[in-house]
Automatic annotation (TrEMBL):
Its cofactor is FAD. Keywords: Flavoprotein, Oxidoreductase. The keyword Flavoprotein applies. Homodimer. Pfam families: Pyr_redox_2. It comes from the Bacteria. Signal peptide: none annotated. One of its GO terms (molecular function) is oxidoreductase activity. It comes from Cohnella lubricantis. Residues 2-116 form the FAD/NAD(P)-binding domain. Gene3D superfamilies: FAD/NAD(P)-binding domain (3.50.50.60). This is FAD-dependent oxidoreductase.
Amino acid sequence: MYEVAIIGGGPAGASAALFTAKAGKKTLVIDSDQSVTRRAWIDNHYGAPAISGPDLVDTGKKQAEKFGAEFVTGKAVKLTAGTDSLTVETETGTYEAKHVIVATGMFVDFAEASGIQTKPGTEPRIKTIIDATPEGKTNVANVWAAGTVAGVSMHTIITAGDGAKVAINVVSELNGERYVDHDVMKKD
């Protein structure tokens, strides 16, 4: 069983995976490879000179994998809550996790099929989003939402930051105390 399963491998999902895996949590990312970021050119991402969306997504995935996050390609179709775990059903199999972060960008079909409450979106072209608290919690215990699907602006820097924020909240809950991830430069 995974401690954290993340649905979506775009900036929000991969950023969440980077933080959960770096915190030592067994992390799985289920990615359908449909991120709209894969069609973007990005000139406004702090710390990254002009970069193509595919390069940004691939770099984020490599960073998360460096810390042990596992990525599988597939479409998650439904989540079922059990007594001690959540089961994520994909088109080709199932996965179990203690916590699930939904980071599906513009797509809410997984959330709707899983009984996760949605509400009207506020961003242009985003009709529906998951109804989540500012921390990322949804109406389903141990299911969280991050990024555009949680109602934040779809700019990559904002969705990546939201994925990190939600991941920190998940890790804090798993640890039973507030988690902080802060590296310092090593002396030569």
